[in-house]
Amino acid sequence: MTPVTPATNYRPLRLTWIYPDLLSTYGDRGNLLILERRARLRGMPVDVIEVNSDQRVPADGDIYLMGGGEDLPQTLATHRLRADGGLHEAVRRGAVLFAVCAGYQMLGTEFGGADGQPLPGLGLLDIRSGRGERRGVGEILADVDPELGVPRLTGFENHQGVTELGPGARPLAQVVAGVGNGNGTEGAYAGRVLGTYLHGPALVRNPGLADLLLTWALGQQLPPLPPQAEELAQRLRAERLAAVPASQ
Amino acid sequence: MDTPLPARPRLPIRARLATTVGGAAATVSKLAGRDGSVISGIIGLRLEPDLLSLLAAGRQVVLVTGTNGKTTTTRLITAALSATGQKVASNVYGANMEAGLTSALSKEQDALLAVLETDEKYIPSMIKATQPKVVVLLNLSRDQMDRAAEIWMLARRWREALAASDCLVVANADDPLIAWAASAGRSVSWVGAGQRWREDSWCCPECGAHLARNGDDWSCRECGNQRPAVRWQLEGDKVIDPAGRVQPLDLALPGRANASNAVVALAVAEAFGVDADAALAQMRGVTSVAGRYTQVQRHGTEIRLLLAKNPAGWLEALDVMVPAPVPVLLAVNAQVPDGRDTSWLWDVDYRRLRDRPVLVGGERRMDLAVRLEADDVPFQLADGIDQAIELARSPRLEVLANYTAFQQYRAILGRTQ
After folding, report:
1. Shortest Cα–Cα distance, B122 to chain A (Å)
2. What is the CATH number of the domain that holds A152?
């Protein structure tokens, strides 16, 4: 396979994981590992940068990742990221930001705190979250916005949030089974900022979504992977898609 | 213990009826080939909702909780307390909610001591019901998040419950979340039991700041919260007792995690007047706990079964394994008791398995396969234990499985014993 041409000329792709000490609940590292693997398989060098909550967030990353967290860590992480400003600068520069679960809620203008009270979010995506009536726990299926060219999402959700989208954000997908945003849609995106309620290692079963993030970061189409490199991921994906009955 | 404990008060008539009817149901259930460890409690509680309190009255109760090591620690404490010469009631099969505790006490009505493994979520209500003499807090880490409570939340509930109780808390000082929960207790016996898994305690439970860490020591630069001074210390495979004496643990059970559990058990034994020598003599006789660490032969292969249910448990279990080149079978299910969510597989580092044959089994083996691929660990898929044995072609095989995968293998292997 021919490596992507720019990668051999440019600096390594910088994968930056925001606050693994505070925002890492259940397998969030998986997203980092999948992006790293899919970039390397295409011959791109990768630098992995893990930024703890007592460190400055570098503004020169290419892809930023945010994981899940309990209410209190979510609130603390939001305070720190607002005070730090590095992530905001990176997004202004056009960096890719991918956030799951609690991280997704934090991207918005508002989310529900430990006692359900509204707290200010990072304001990086035009969404507003609050606490719903019941917890959404289980497998989720959702059909992605056709604009993005990503096949059906399969994942696991575990949250009590409901999220409303403002005019500045588009739904990532339409729910086929599960809860998602709570109004039939799932996740949201605008520009290169994308969030989802699929928690933990969301990119594992959705290699298409991982490749979308890499494409955004590189600014060009990626060469396909050889089928044997995809075989296990596709088998897992098929197994999970078949295991969940679509409710609509 | 030198002085015999006073006899227990007689149960009120409704409670006596409840235990009798419940016990009969357990017998019938066992005759029908089912596990009778919970049924008597369920029926008894239906007839007498206060049955657990009534059964606990007049006994000295130890409650044991934490994410990992509950069953083994309960077993070790039970062994240690047998040195008192007293009968000890215990839910040995790990039925650790209200009905399981009730069944255990109902079965051993004349036992004046009770060591009860307790589910993390039930600690506040079980403290109220049993008025324990000792509450043991082992560790807290991410576990079955689709049904378990979030752990900071859990620690906060434990704090409230312990603040309202006059029990002695025996707690691991090396786990910051445990230390924070235990510090609400009126009296605490701190144990330096180590902490292998740290992914859930990088930040201060009190104020959220990133903790300063140096070996097992930890402190918060912002609020001053720090590791308490310990009374008992695990040092490699030895224990340092409160008098500063160092002695080898020499357990039959393998691994750092069990050494850690044993030191906690010694601190509990001390509260019952059992010294370390007497306690250790009993604890060394524990070789297998509810089928864990059992060695079995099948088709000429010596198989050892390890059970672990979450990333911290898998990390410790991988430490315990017989080194390469002995092959390893990893098996994962995602039934309700396992947690339906396999995300946790991504929290474990498998790279150390690169130098040995690895087999992957269980109902969710594809999840594990993709995980191992990401860590560049070569493996083969195995459909069932017999295919794994065939593929391994080795005189030994180490098996690490989560809950229902473990039970499935045990059911097959049990028939060959």
Report:
1. 20
2. 3.40.50.880
